[in-house]
Amino acid sequence: MRKINVTIWNEFIHEAAPDAAGEYIRRIYPEGIHSFLKQKLAADDLTIRTATLNQPEQGLPDSVLKTTDVLLWWGHCAHDRVDDALVERIHQRVLDGMGVIVLHSGHLSKIFRRLMGTRCRLRWREVGEKERLWVVAPGHPIVAGVPETFTLPHSEMYGERFDIPDDGKIIFMSWFEGGNVFRSGVAFRRDSGKVFYFSPGHETYPIYHDPNILRILSNAIRWAASELQPPRVTPTPEPHEPITTENPLKDLDPELIHGKR
Amino acid sequence: MRKINVTIWNEFIHEAAPDAAGEYIRRIYPEGIHSFLKQKLAADDLTIRTATLNQPEQGLPDSVLKTTDVLLWWGHCAHDRVDDALVERIHQRVLDGMGVIVLHSGHLSKIFRRLMGTRCRLRWREVGEKERLWVVAPGHPIVAGVPETFTLPHSEMYGERFDIPDDGKIIFMSWFEGGNVFRSGVAFRRDSGKVFYFSPGHETYPIYHDPNILRILSNAIRWAASELQPPRVTPTPEPHEPITTENPLKDLDPELIHGKR
Amino acid sequence: MRKINVTIWNEFIHEAAPDAAGEYIRRIYPEGIHSFLKQKLAADDLTIRTATLNQPEQGLPDSVLKTTDVLLWWGHCAHDRVDDALVERIHQRVLDGMGVIVLHSGHLSKIFRRLMGTRCRLRWREVGEKERLWVVAPGHPIVAGVPETFTLPHSEMYGERFDIPDDGKIIFMSWFEGGNVFRSGVAFRRDSGKVFYFSPGHETYPIYHDPNILRILSNAIRWAASELQPPRVTPTPEPHEPITTENPLKDLDPELIHGKR
Amino acid sequence: MRKINVTIWNEFIHEAAPDAAGEYIRRIYPEGIHSFLKQKLAADDLTIRTATLNQPEQGLPDSVLKTTDVLLWWGHCAHDRVDDALVERIHQRVLDGMGVIVLHSGHLSKIFRRLMGTRCRLRWREVGEKERLWVVAPGHPIVAGVPETFTLPHSEMYGERFDIPDDGKIIFMSWFEGGNVFRSGVAFRRDSGKVFYFSPGHETYPIYHDPNILRILSNAIRWAASELQPPRVTPTPEPHEPITTENPLKDLDPELIHGKR
Predict the structure, then answer these.
(1) Could you report the per-residue pLDDT of C120-151, keeping only the tens digit for each?
(2) Fewest CB atoms within 10 A around its CB: which of B185, C62, C65, C233?
(3) Domains in chain A: how many in total?
């Protein structure tokens, strides 16, 4: 069985900051969120690489992107620094079938907004309040082995209204101690690619240490990769479909036949 | 009652071409598709303007765009010439509540692809074959007064697979003489704005002369404008929601309270 | 302008109970929830009637049902007593275009389950906890004039997972003090009819006294009635479509032509 | 690996008719559609049984139904003879996770209408015209190995408008020689169960002999069974969720705490 090629991309700024905030975060993720996830998600059917913003080609040269089956994306304060050309390459790769898992503050990333067609805004508050997640789609592969509800003791609040399109399949909804609710796990399809947005994951809390969170990400990787196959339909450029003997058209007025665009 | 401000944008290239093809099209639309539609869609509750690619600011300076309730968009061979900055302004305006009706070959326009998040490709063939439309959403405002099925004697074929997201409400499906089918009228919502894609409208056939087609566009304008109201939610930038006396949070660990971003 | 004919149906059992619980509820709704809503929702464009379970034909003879544009349904402990034949008549009427607004514990009513095709179960808890509603679909007619968020001081908790189909347009999501979340306002389309489920409305709290709740119900009535028109498509029984001169089929093998069912 | 238990149910009336029509059909399906499909779909990972209307308990006693992972359903002229109690049992089993594949004229079966909540009507014509199917959801497991388009030389026309809910994922759309279009393959989710409706399959044409059609059914069986797992959420009856030490609620007014229902 071919292994799934996973690339975990992280802007890797908060964890590298030379100040007290950075030091605080390094207690949770000593080598960055990407390295932590790579270690925790390791499995026999996965080949996991990491990539960060400060690497050449922002970590995602074609040689990496084109051999990635599922891309995880963590970004927050440097969305604007991601090259538009890279966003375009990722976008095309998703439409061609690569899965993408957008984490936490990646809701404002260029790639997520590009895939959604909306602003993807939400309400937020960072006071370390409790978050309680609820499974809304039992039976979905992403929730396999995940309890119907579980709690994160400290989380950044992300709250409605979240302006995403209506075709998201809601997998999780979250409750926050301070009075907010959120569609915290939502799955989309964009052409041949699958997209999963999952909101828990603030850098100052050890959320990716939580076994349920890791289980969800682990499931999501397999789900996002599950239909990988060569794109079979709608090649680039748009297909012109000629009249064939199979589908003859009779009695056409020659004056009306123009198209050789 | 406040009138609905409609702007009909047309790249206006085919109809202005100095060659035989242009001459052929001018027999159908002497002053361009935009001018023709402006005349045919005129009504007491509408204020209709037109705009074209070659005008200053590509016809859509802020003074026009910000006073447009519903934008009709016809483009084909010059999608790439539309400024990215203009596309961005239109996009924001749609998300803020402006309706947009994307016509025919506008499926590949920058604004439609931006709103969809996909490539919006399809199959096509231009041999003047017959198209038969079917109403799939009876009762929808866009089909009021439109027969359950009607025929266009000559049309450009647009066929599946059309790679749009799944949240489109299918209003029309089309049958083509040569053996193809198409979701020819699809309605979307993107944040506060409504989007309607309607495929019939090739420049070399008198499709916009058809009373059913005009009725559909006329209905779509009212539908796209029907919920115009000041955007009330999710202002820019993202709202920070403080803890208030209404929603107190007790026992927070001060060390966990970071966010002053 | 033709008025909208509204019928408010209530099983009217809790409010009529001769015990202490009934007495408690009568302090809030002296003449039943139906009478209270009739009074509070009164408006110039509405003609409102009420109907209750104990009336002849369970309050909804054909003479009433066939002249009802929008039906409100409040039921809880007597779902099983509603005649299957009545449920069938209501179902057909909804599919033909009548709007229906299902209130609170009506999630388990026969008519709602019939329209959904699922069990419509949820979690619940009745301890008088606080409920906070969030508008998830700004710009939707049902939320016109409703604040982005508002609170009910005491409510019965209805919580996820709510097993409804995925085509519901989520209008409201609720937060509950005890740690639960819920899709508390969801809009559906079933053939020509519109369906709105709205969960707040427990009989032992004065929820229908709340101006926001009344505003929502008031909006929902207009929304549910907004596309009333004679059903134009797919008459009963299923339409056989003959081959016509408009759509000739040539070269058919007579042996293959069977169907005169 | 546990095998998938498939049960193919057929009303088995047309193929058994003692008249010329029956004789005609028996040339195509000598022992009934169910037997034919059982033979053609046989595979190492499947255990296939058949069941027919005239068997005891209409072929689906609890001992069969409760051990069925995926049910195929072919019915046409005897929908009314299927016991309501059996429909109820099938419905519950689907909601609990059994997949169901509804074939051809099963669009009017009690079980499909129950699952949809609508009348599921369509237009039809039986003149042996050509049907051309188009894949609309490339990458979906149901279309694996199926060409983007293929033709059935003779088919019964099923045409729009098909009054199903909007949450159907459109997998196939069909073109008919006589001028009609149809959503001929649509996938739904109802609670824990998957539903696939697939329209080709008229008894007087050898449609189930077509390798593409068999491939689609074969794929659909695996798809419908793919998430089989014990239902983990929302047990029967509705769960009451108590306040726990995990989610304490303070300051509740004892007078407001009623619920011991």
Answers:
(1) 999 999 888 999 999 999 889 999 999 999 99
(2) C62
(3) 1
What are the distances in angstroms from CA C107 to CA A108, C46, C103, C123, C158?
36, 25, 7, 12, 10
Mutant choice from A13, A105, A258 vs B, greatest count of B C-beta within 10 A = A258
* Chain D residues near residue C118 by CB distance under 8 angstroms: 95, 190-191
Q: Is A138 in contact with D233 (Cβ distance < 8 A)?
A: yes
DSSP readout, C134-197? EESSTT-GGGTT--SEEEEEEEEEEES-----TTPEEEEEEEETTS-EEEEEEEEEETTEEEEE
Q: Choose, out of D126, D180, D197, D199, the residue to mutate when testing the contact with C (most C CBs < 10 Å).
A: D126
Residue A231 has pLDDT above 70, yes or no: no
Whether the CB of C126 is below 8 Å from some CB of chain D: the reply is yes
| Owning domain of residue D99 | 4-120+182-232
- Give the chain A residue whose CA is nearest to the CA of B179: A247
In this structure, the strands spanning B169-176 and C70-74 are unpaired
Residue A53 near residue A13 (C-beta atoms within 8 A): yes
Which of D183, D169, D9, D32 minimizes the C-alpha distance to D93? Answer: D9
For residue D157, tell me if it sits in a domain.
no
Q: Is A130 helix (H, G, I), strand (E, B) or coil?
A: strand
In the complex, which subunits touch B with 3 or more CB pairs below 8 angstroms? A, C, D
Dist CA B113 CA A114 (whole Å): 9
3-state secondary structure chain D: CCCEEEEEEECCCHHHCCCHHHHHHHHHCCCCHHHHHHHHHCCCCEEEEEEECCCHHHHCCHHHHCCCCEEEEECCCCHHHCCHHHHHHHHHHHHCCCEEEEEHHHHHCHHHHHHHCCCCCCEEEEEEEEEEEEECCCCCHHHCCCCCEEEEEEEEEEECCCCCCCCCEEEEEEEECCCCEEEEEEEEEECCEEEEEECCCCCCCCHHHCHHHHHHHHHHHHHHHCCCCCCCCCCCCCCECCCCCCCCCCCCCHHHCCCCC
Residue in D138, D161, D169 closest to B161 by CB: D138
Nearest CA to C169 among C190, C196, C132? C196
Amino acid B239: pLDDT:
65
Q: Does any CB of chain C come closer than 8 Å to the CB of residue A161?
A: yes
Q: What per-residue confidence (pLDDT) applies to A2?
A: 86
Give a yes or no: residue C56 inside a domain: yes
CB contact under 8 A, D128 and C177: no
D140 is a domain residue: no
Q: Within a domain: residue C68?
A: yes
Mean pLDDT (chain C) is 90
Select the residue from D135, D140, D160, D174 to test the B interface by mutation, using most B Cβ atoms within 10 A.
Answer: D160
Band (C238; pLDDT cuts 50, 70, 90)? low
pTM of the entire structure?
A: 0.92
Query: Is the Cβ pair D180, B175 closer than 8 Å?
Result: yes
The answer to whether the Cβ–Cβ distance between D179 and B135 falls below 8 Å is no
What CATH number does the domain containing B172 carry?
3.40.50.880
Residues of A in contact with B241 (CB under 8 A): 123-125, 157, 159, 178, 180
pLDDT tens for each residue of C51-88: 999 999 999 999 999 999 999 999 999 999 999 999 99
Q: Which residues of A touch B108 (CB under 8 A)?
A: 238
β-pairing, C70-74 vs C99-103, is parallel
